[in-house]
Specification:
The chain is α+β, with helices and mostly antiparallel strands. It is 30% helix and 26% strand. Strands 5, 6, 9, 10 and 11 form a 5-stranded mixed β-sheet that branches. A 5-stranded mixed β-sheet has the order 15-12-18-16-17.
Length: 372
């Protein structure tokens, strides 16, 4: 695995892990891989442990050279003598997969050298460099785009290794085998195994890596009775009546708790905080909400936004909305701008309209955590 000079693009991250870490991990978790050699630019050797992270396999880190082939040579020389087949992988290809690695290893073990490649999709033209015009169309079946990891048997590396020290520049390792007249088997590559070369590649890879958001809805209703405080998101709203309930009857927190649990597929408020359990008698809604955030976090999700409608005939909630948003935002660990709370009336219709009850509808959006 090779990297360029300075702070190379391989240290850029997708979903919280660098291209380097992801490319190392693809090889590290393959059952046939027994050891790893990472080639880093000499200036990065001091931070190698942090840059690479923990690995299952034994890991050696060596300094790269001026050209790709010099770095690869340094890496290959650091491989222990017992290795039968050596895989050479690019740190900018984080999406190689186990099946692809299986194919190149199997082919190299039997033939000596193998590369994964994908066929050309477009019609391929050879350009006449003198005129700048099309010289000829190349039969597409003959055109294959080389990927990595490329695999070489130990005896083949012994032959091609010295070639890499020469003046001729090889843009991939299999070119060295070609020069030596050693056949290189082409195995099926993978369209997803792209090399991250441009900022556009990185943007596209990040978009592809972003899991779809999870959405949940929640609903709650409590009767309004005299002698109970009206609590919404832990904010006391002065009023002559308040919600009847085993807990504090905070419909905002209860509906949002259900929305969070629903989005994570983690059950509902009754499952986690049953009203038959004395532990939850008088429990503040904000406390249940915070516990629900911990439950969805344990399931691998982070709240990203919430939208709640409170349906209540009286009193007007507007003066309290901002305080409620701040408390909900703090409980969810999001910015206040990601929390929306609206007060609605029921236009005098039904029990809520007659002021006999308070209700709430909530929608919560979760995202899967970074490097999941
Ligand atoms: Mg409730």
């Amino acid at each position: 695995m090779r990297m360029g000079a300075g702070r190379p693009k391989q240290l850029l991250a997708i979903g919280g892990r660098s291209l380097l870490q992801r490319s190392v991990a693809v090889c590290d978790r393959h059952p046939a891989v027994g050891e790893l050699v990472v080639v880093l630019h000499a200036t990065l050797l001091g931070e190698a442990e942090t840059l690479i992270g923990r690995t299952r396999c034994a890991l050696r880190v060596v300094a790269g050279g001026a050209r790709r082939q010099d770095s690869v040579r340094a890496g290959v020389l650091a491989v222990t003598a017992s290795a039968d087949v050596v895989l050479i992988h690019d740190a900018a290809r984080p999406f190689a997969n186990e099946a692809l690695i299986d194919r190149v290893i199997a082919a190299a073990a039997s033939t000596g050298a193998a590369i994964p490649a994908v066929g050309a999709r477009d019609t391929v033209k050879r350009r006449d460099l003198a005129t700048g015009c099309v010289g000829e169309s190349v039969p597409r079946a003959e055109i294959w785009m080389a990927q990595t990891p490329q695999a070489f048997r130990r005896d083949v590396l012994a032959v091609i290794g010295p070639l890499s020290a020469g003046q001729r520049e090889a843009t991939d390792e299999s070119m060295l085998a070609e020069w030596a007249g050693i056949p290189v088997m082409i195995v099926e590559g993978d369209e997803r195994n792209v090399k991250i070369t441009t900022p556009d590649d990185l943007t596209a890879a990040r978009r592809r890596d972003t899991p779809a958001p999870r959405v949940g809805t929640g609903y709650d209703l409590h009767r309004l009775v005299e002698g109970r405080p009206l609590m919404l998101a832990g904010v006391h709203v002065p009023f002559e009546r308040g919600p009847l309930g085993h807990s504090d009857g905070d419909v905002l927190c209860h509906s949002l708790t259900d929305a969070l649990l629903g989005a994570a597929g983690a059950g509902d408020i009754g499952k986690h905080f049953p009203n038959t359990d004395p532990a939850w008698k008088g429990a503040p809604g904000l406390d249940l909400l915070q516990r629900a955030v911990a439950i969805v976090a344990a399931a691998g999700y982070t709240p990203s936004s919430a939208d709640i409608s409170i349906i209540l005939e009286q009193p007007k909630l507007l003066p309290f909305i901002q305080a409620m948003r701040e408390r909900v935002a703090a409980a969810l660990g999001v910015d206040v701008s990601a929390v929306s709370i609206k007060g609605k009336t029921n236009e005098g219709v039904d029990a809520v309209g007659r002021g006999e009850a308070i209700a709430a509808h909530a929608v919560a959006v979760l995202t899967a955590r970074g490097d999941a």
